[in-house]
Write a structure and sequence with these properties.
25 helices
């Protein structure tokens, strides 16, 4: 393959330069991060200049090289005296010119030197990220002396990243996990590790790498890109390998098993929750984030069990995927029970009905993925099956009076009737449900005891009845469902 020429191009004492780069990042963090700029900026500039000189001093023993070195050192001392925009800009140009001297050849044309320095100052930092692709390629193809490939990043990057995403979703879905995590003193850790700090480290690494290794040696960049095949070096395809998938599935199954055990304890068996957390709170936080986990599961499963792929043919991966999908179906079922518990405490709405139907579709979709894989069906069959399921469910909903069912449930389970649920939201029934809520409101008028709510229900009932009769009087707005509502109203009025 092409690993050997790429390795040669990336050598040139690369391990020592990586060590120096690590030192620069560490020192830069101590001297510059989260502090007002002072003399330490000049000190860091001197250290970076010495690092560039130490790794390439044998290439710069010329009068021009010595002049560039002392000029850059003088600008670093100027920043020690008083850092400013002008001194920092001139330092950057001078340091870049000093780093590029061996690559420029003749330095008689000052304009070419300045233009090359400015261009590299603006774009050279990108070389750090571009060469990462090459290192990933070598991680796949170069071996250690003991014969094992250097695949730590390749085997653990995807599993740990996706597991962290699932843990974040479970953190949102499970107040017990959130309570446990909040008890940890993260503030002290956050003082040392944060997104801003890691971005600062990355910036120093990119700038430092640009001047320590200003250009690939022994082979032009375009030649390397010509040798590399995209399918061999693509980042996603590189980390999506059998071992990383097995590791991911093992972590996923363990994490989902923990969540399912807690759901069994607190949802299915009704065990007592810790003090300060009610079953309604536990149900409220869990329903919607768990739908996202199921969708992520479906995407990962489709990518893993692609028909005809070598990964899908590995028995261990197929078994782990099936176990994980089964856990997800159980998780979706638990999410539905969570939502039902939440509905019991806070009544029904159209959004919650839609969420229940969506959970049904997600569960059926996961089951269809496994069924299609077991029957060796292609993705077209899977798409058609899911669309047929969606169409069938929506088709049935067209004939179901969801608003009437929802109003009947909310009225008969409100706090004014059974003393447990939420207070009856008369405004929601009027504005969202409309005339379909009339039978439920009439039932409340005969069974409700709260005088204040009864007055609101009676007023709403009168308005909805007038609206219903107005619709039925106009043959263009006539509906069969509204026709079936009229006898219930007339019977109540006759009484």
């Amino acid at each position: 393959m092409h690993a050997q020429p790429i390795a040669q191009s990336l050598q040139s004492r690369a391990s020592y330069k990586l060590l120096s780069l690590t030192g620069l990042v560490t020192v830069g963090d101590m001297l510059l991060y989260n502090h007002a700029l002072g003399w330490t900026l000049g000190l860091f500039g001197l250290l970076m200049l010495l690092a560039v000189h130490a790794h390439n001093c044998h290439e710069r023993r010329t009068r021009m090289g010595d002049a560039a070195f002392f000029a850059t050192a003088g600008l670093a001392l100027a920043m020690v005296e008083s850092p400013g925009i002008l001194s920092a800009l001139l330092y950057g140009i001078s340091l870049t010119a000093y780093a590029l001297l061996p690559q420029l050849g003749s330095t008689e044309n000052t304009w070419i030197t300045l233009k090359s320095s400015l261009f590299h100052l603006l774009t050279g930092w990108w070389r750090f990220f571009r060469q990462t692709r090459l290192w990933l390629y070598l991680y796949r193809h170069m071996k250690r002396r003991n014969g094992r490939q250097r695949h730590f990043v390749l085997h653990w990057l995807m599993p740990l990243t996706l597991t962290a995403l699932f843990m974040l979703l479970f953190f949102q879905a499970n107040p017990l996990i959130a309570l446990t995590i909040r008890q940890v003193n993260w503030q002290s850790l956050g003082e040392y590790i944060s997104f801003q700090r890691m971005a600062f480290w990355l910036a120093i690494a990119a700038v430092g790498w640009a001047v320590i290794r200003p250009k690939l040696t022994r082979m032009p960049v375009f030649r390397l890109n010509y040798l590399l095949h995209e399918e061999e070096i693509g980042f996603l395809k590189t980390i999506f390998n059998p071992r990383s998938i097995i590791t991911s599935l093992l972590l996923f199954n363990g994490l989902f098993l923990l969540q399912n055990i807690m759901d069994i304890l607190f949802i299915w068996t009704g065990s007592e929750l810790p003090e300060g957390i009610t079953h309604a709170q536990y149900a409220q936080q869990g329903a919607y984030p768990l739908i996202i986990t199921a969708l992520m599961t479906g995407g990962f499963t489709l990518a893993t069990l692609r028909p005809g792929s070598a990964i899908a043919a590995i028995p261990a991966i197929r078994a782990l995927v099936y176990a994980w999908v089964a856990q997800n179906i159980f998780l979706v079922t638990s999410a539905a029970l969570r939502l039902l518990s939440y509905i019991e405490a806070y009544s029904l709405t159209y959004l919650r009905v839609a969420a229940l139907l969506w959970m049904v579709l997600v569960g059926v979709g996961l089951a269809l993925i496994v069924l299609g894989n077991m029957l060796r069906k292609n993705n077209i069959w899977l798409i058609n099956s899911n669309l047929a399921t969606l169409y069938g469910l929506l088709y049935i909903c067209c004939f179901v009076n969801i608003g009437g069912i929802m109003a009947d449930y909310n009225v008969k389970h409100c706090r004014e009737i059974d003393g447990k649920g939420a207070s009856l939201d008369v405004s929601y029934l009027y504005h969202k449900v409309g005339v379909d809520a009339l039978p439920a409101l009439r039932w409340f008028e005969h069974n409700g005891t709260n005088a204040f709510v009864l007055n609101r229900v009676t007023e709403t009932d009168y308005q909805l009845e007038w609206e219903l009769r107005s619709r039925m009087e106009n043959w263009k707005s006539w509906t069969y469902r509204n026709l079936r509502l009229l006898p219930t109203i007339d019977n109540d009025n006759a009484e």
